[in-house]
Amino acid sequence: MRAKRPSLETSRMVLLPCIRLVAHPIRFLRSAVAPSCLASLVRSVLASVAVSSAFLVAQPAFAQDAASIVEKADTIRFPREAFQVEVSIKSTSASGDEYRKYRILQKGGNNTIIQTVEPASERGQILLMKERDLWAFLPTVSQPVRLSLAQRLTGQVANGDLARANFSGDYTPKLLGVEKIDGVDHHALELTAVDRTVTYARVLFWVRTSNGAPHKAEFYSLSGKLLKSCVYDEYKTLGGKLRPTRLIMQDALREGDQSVLEYSSMQVRDLPDKIFTKEYLKKVE
């Protein structure tokens, strides 16, 4: 049977006489209880150090848990290996509906090519992302045009939503706790942008505790305004793993405005580094 841990009051009663004796060195040295007092003091100090050490060790572990959760969610959304995927986007707003289709080639999370497939009138337009630098290659323009990740691509979709879906590389995560959504436990995380080149300044992110699957996200501006929300839906086998194949992005400022992204035809494939360069894409044009 485990020994009962002494209470704070009991410890105080044991140590108080010792502390009084130590305050008078001569009396302490002559006292018959000096050895037992020293032992009590040592045990008390060691216990305090152990508690402090445990607390200090626990803090980085908690932070590491948040990073691990986000990294796993990233690998569920997209493969670690180089891959190709098709994404169709239907956007609805007060001004009408809009349809776009893109082919995405990505390697390592930091290298992305986005090719416009539909509409046919925009075919040949290409976006290239290297790290957080983004350029647009247009058939009618001789030189690539520098763009921001936060700029609108179509509907509720920003350039960075397709070009750089790398939460673990772009944000510092903090685990806020566990929340129930529709009766299911989810990790609630706050993601803070590592710098101002990232698509969003802040993201609230909910991930299922049982399997690490992303459920929803809210995207905020630098001023703290909610811009839009995203639901990760219709989990199916894609690229050899169960992934969300349907994303619903809703505008937080204009009710009813939304974009639905459908992912399909994902395949892991070898992509040479040379294709993710401005020089190569100029030749392709």
Top keywords for this entry?
285 residues; alpha+beta; 13-stranded antiparallel beta sheet; two-stranded antiparallel ribbon
Shape: globular
Largest sheet: 13 strands, antiparallel
Number of strands: 15
Strand content: 35-45%
Discrete helix count: 6
What's the pLDDT, averaged over the residues? 83
- State the separation between the terminal residues, measured CA to CA: 77 Å
Q: Order the strands across the largest sheet as they lie in space.
A: 6-5-4-3-2-1-15-14-13-12-11-10-9
Report the structural category. alpha+beta
Instruction: Give unreliable regions as ranges.
Output: 1-19, 21-35, 44-61
Radius of gyration: 28 Å
* Helix-strand string: HHHEEEEEEEEHHEEEEEEEH
Amount of helix: 25-40%
Brief sketch in words of this structure:
This protein is α+β, with helices and mostly antiparallel strands and 285 residues long. The protein has helices at 8-22, 25-30, 34-77, 159-163, 167-170, 278-284; strands at 83-93, 96-107, 111-118, 126-130, 133-137, 145-147, 152-154, 157-158, 171-181, 184-193, 202-208, 214-220, 226-238, 241-251, 258-268. It contains six helices and 15 strands.
